[in-house]
Automatic annotation (TrEMBL):
Family as reported in the entry's similarity comment: Belongs to the ABC transporter superfamily.
GO MF annotation list: ATP binding
Coiled coil feature spans: none
KW Heme (keyword) present: no
This protein's name: Amino acid ABC transporter ATP-binding protein
Subcellular location: Cell membrane
Limits of the ABC transporter domain: 17-251
């Protein structure tokens, strides 16, 4: 897969994911507070913030793994469907890669990648395999196709998880701390795949504290604290010149380890 072409008639850089005044509670906890966020086609947005600030909840809400109480979330102008076929389609439009690899342990690497395209997109097994092998090649694990997840390193499994998401041909990819469960030597191999994905024009929302990735690949950094977006800026500005006391405090902590 190369660059995701825009459907005809749509200018590049049009708003793709738009959150307007989104609010969500977990009981008494106001976990998402008046979230307004627009991610344009081809844009890479890094979401950063302290533990418990609502970053994962934001991703899960965009993908409708969580409900929300007020506001709107649209993907390419379409309201988020509540259920049924429309929701399955939306889920295919929004790929998600989590901290844990979530591969099916009893299926081979190749089967992990072909399953969705065969079941949801209706591809023939041969076509799905061809596409899967190209994607596994792209993330550097094609030679592992016949193995089972437990036989791969964490970094390799995470790259398979990325290939599996890409196989659904998503419009936008969400990554929730995709490298935080990895041993240090495997972090870069996953980040390299993500940087190349960003370069290919994929729209991405990435929760990560990897500043190298943010600097290399992000158009924008969004800083969350206590359920709210407190600050948004270019990576360079955000890391060198944070504006809010909360961002300054947070960066002071992560920069000193
Ligand atoms: N299903 C749930 N039920 C109740 N509270 C929840 C639930 N999921 C998350 N929370 C709470 O919501 C808040 C935000 O959690 P979330 O996982 O979105 O934070 P985060 O920014 O991703 O944190 P981390 O950096 O640790 O991953 C936390 O206080 C958390 O305890
Ligand atoms: Mg989280």
């Amino acid at each position: 897969m190369t660059d995701t072409p825009s459907p005809a008639g749509r200018a590049p850089g049009a708003p793709l994911v738009v959150l307007t005044d989104v609010n969500k509670h977990f009981g008494d906890l106001h976990v998402l507070q008046d979230i307004n966020l627009t991610v344009h086609e081809g844009e890479v947005v890094v979401v950063i913030g302290p533990s418990g600030s609502g970053k994962s909840t934001l991703c899960r809400t965009i993908n409708r793994l969580e409900t929300y109480e007020s506001g709107t979330i649209t993907i390419d102008g379409q309201d988020l469907p509540q259920e049924g076929k429309a929701l399955a389609r939306l889920r295919a439009d929004v790929g998600m890669v989590f901290q844990s690899f979530n591969l099916f342990s009893h299926k081979t690497i190749l089967e992990n990648v072909t399953l969705g395209p065969i079941k949801v997109r209706g591809l023939k097994p041969k076509e799905a395999e061809k596409q899967a092998m190209a994607l596994l090649e792209r993330v550097g694990v094609a030679h592992q196709a016949k193995k089972y997840p437990a036989q791969l390193s964490g970094g390799q499994q995470q790259r398979v998880a990325i290939a599996r998401s890409l196989a659904m041909e998503p419009r936008v990819m969400l990554f929730d701390e995709p490298t935080s469960a990895l041993d240090p030597e495997m972090i870069n191999e996953v980040l390299d795949v993500m940087v190349s994905l960003a370069k290919s024009g994929m729209t991405m929302i990435v929760v990560t504290h990897e500043m190298g990735f943010a600097r290399k690949a992000a158009d924008r950094v969004v800083f969350m604290s206590d359920g709210a977006i407190v600050e948004e800026n270019t990576p360079e500005e955000f890391f060198t010149n944070p504006q809010s006391p909360r961002a300054k405090d947070f960066l002071g902590k992560i920069l000193t380890h």
